[in-house]
Amino acid sequence: MPAKLRIEPPLLNAACPWASDLTFLRPLWKSPSTGAITTRTSLVNGYPHDDAVNTFLFYDPSDSTSSTSRDPPAFQPSSDSLTGSLNCFGLSPHPLASYLDFIRALAKEPSDKLIVVSVTGETPETNAEAVRQVIAFSKEVPLRLAVEINLSCPNVPGRPPPAYDDGELRAFLAALPDSSPIPIGLKTTPYTHPGQFRMLVSAVKDSGKISFITAANTLGSSVVMTPEGPILPSEGGFGGLAGPAIHPLALGNVVSLRKMFDEAGVDIQIIGVGGVGDANGYKRMRAAGADFVAVATALGKQGPKVFDDINAKL
Where's the Dihydroorotate dehydrogenase catalytic domain (predicted)? Predict the structure, then answer.
């Protein structure tokens, strides 16, 4: 049986730009209100980040013409109403080896907290190599690690998220090691119809290698516009939608996955993510069936204190 997650308190950050390096990871590591931390998703060799294109903004979900400029400063909210986010980041510019070095640095500050190393690969083979590197590294440090495979980023040019395609998903799963001493999970796309959920549940059940699902990533093909046109500099202004606007869809994904995995007799833990920014959002996600709850946009907006605020009201 695959290894299981242990996260207490059951609250953590999701893989996001505000987990890119030690300046972001260390405060999350030191926070008494997080039971785990997650690194930004990395490739073995890093992603070709372009500052002119790979950026984000915060916006008002009730008035999408009201937004920050591109790439606003982290943890400096300009308006309480700008709670949504749209990004066209792609993946981390730092290679996986950099994140392993970051974790070595954190190991000098002992904690029982879990570190979820988020990785992906351009192919099933390069993805499996990233997973093998994390597994090997887990034997070198006195820390609890897990690995999250991100098959759901909507912003990688020329490659649809593998989590949307049954053949691709199964190929990525088949390439993984047959066993692992640390938990292996999948970060999924926001699914919108029952066939997609059935596809995922069937593939995960058949593989027998997955411990947890992180549901769900941002919703691609989204645009924030002014009357003059899109704000993001990506082609067409497209990006991944996150924050309160995606919360009902994220809840629906967790409800559906919890029900279907249970009915299929598959023992899967779920990290619920999508639009959680306060204690009520946390409670809704747990009620939907999430074992653990992750935060991204609200972290970028409020900083690590968002976890203190959530915990204080539970």
Answer: 83-314
